[in-house]
Inverse folding.
């Protein structure tokens, strides 16, 4: 059975904002990023790339994203929410100067 009018598989406006931010670093897209120092900006960009990668690979790993709509934007939403909640500071557990960090990559 084919889906003739499927619900959106992911938050297209969010994905477009993330891509635009990665291309331009325009803080108007994510106002909480306006005060980032170089380390925070680099970590935020890395986290966005990881979230975007998770989105594009979530269905591809199973070979079903084209037909089964198993794409998930959950991690991308979590990343943006964590950084927004930190209001320009490091999200909890992600400061690279801490011994225990949850960043994907430390700098």
């Amino acid at each position: 059975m084919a889906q003739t009018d499927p619900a959106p598989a992911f938050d297209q406006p969010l994905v477009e904002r993330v891509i635009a931010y990665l291309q331009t670093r325009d803080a108007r897209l994510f106002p909480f990023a306006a005060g980032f120092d170089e380390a925070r900006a680099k970590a935020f960009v890395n986290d966005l790339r990881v979230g975007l990668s998770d989105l594009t690979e979530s269905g591809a790993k199973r070979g079903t994203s084209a037909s089964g709509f198993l794409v998930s934007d959950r991690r991308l939403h979590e990343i943006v929410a964590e950084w927004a909640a930190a209001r320009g500071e490091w999200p909890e557990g992600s400061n690279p100067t801490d011994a225990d960090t949850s960043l994907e990559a430390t700098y």
Summary: Residues 94 and 101 are 5 Å apart (CA to CA).
